[in-house]
Write a structure and sequence with these properties.
InterPro entries: AcTrfase_PglD-like, Hexapep_transf_CS, PglD_N, Trans_hexapeptide_repeat, Trimer_LpxA-like_sf. By secondary structure, the chain is an alpha/beta fold. It is built from 4 helices and 22 strands. Strand 4, helix 4 and strand 5 form a beta-alpha-beta unit.
């Protein structure tokens, strides 16, 4: 990540996990980048949690879109559709996304991380993986060789994505789920927690169970 200031969009639970990633990066290189958070609908609980961390709530996404400050942004929201809408709005306003990788993550050879990708602590990404814009790879998940994760995908904690898997735009992989090798998860599909995907998942479905069904 470069030396520009950083704004996190969304101050809910995952937004504050993104703050942990930022803290890890700043502790490693000694450069303070975080300016604060923006959120269109911050809850009182989220406001209080930011205050405990000493982080500022700067305003809403309209404030960020209109700001002339030299900042980059990351989205700390898990919904693929919401990420896409925010991405489109801020890109149209000329804002650029940052890519964050926690120092305790492992990234292999020939990995290409799209703008706005966030890789949390303990994640393992093997060689040949490619992510799109604003892909989230959460704590202790593993992404095996030659997998592709398209724009606005969310990988929850402790997910296992096998080699050659293709996860389409806005899909979400639930905690502890597994996708076996060379399979495809369709656009906007949700793989439920602890599900095991053994065949291609169509777009827009919710897949649950072992083996996963919809």
């Amino acid at each position: 990540m470069d030396s520009e200031g950083l704004v996190v969009v969304g101050c809910g639970g995952f937004g504050r996990e993104v703050l942990d990633v930022v803290d890890g990066i700043e502790a490693q290189d000694g450069v303070h980048r975080l300016i604060g958070f923006v959120d269109d609908h911050p809850s009182e609980a989220s406001r209080a949690a930011l205050a405990r961390r000493g982080a500022r709530l700067l305003g809403d996404t309209a404030w960020l879109a209109a700001s002339d400050a030299p900042v980059r942004y990351v989205i700390g929201i898990s919904s693929g559709a919401v990420k896409r809408a925010i991405d489109e709005r801020l890109t149209a306003a000329g804002k650029q996304a940052a890519t964050l990788v926690h120092p305790a993550a492992t990234v292999g050879f020939d990995v290409h991380l799209g703008d706005g990708t966030v890789v949390c602590a303990g994640a393992r990404i093997e060689g040949g993986v490619e992510t799109g814009r604003h892909t989230h790879i959460n704590m202790n998940s593993t992404i095996a060789h030659d997998a592709t994760l398209e724009d606005h995908v969310t990988v929850n904690p402790q997910v296992a994505v096998s080699g050659g898997v293709h996860v389409c735009t806005e899909a979400l992989l639930g905690t502890h789920s597994t996708v076996l090798q060379n399979l495809k998860v369709g656009r906007g599909a949700v793989v439920g927690a602890a599900a095991c995907v053994t065949k291609d998942v169509p777009a827009g479905v919710v897949a649950t169970g072992v083996p996963a069904r919809w």
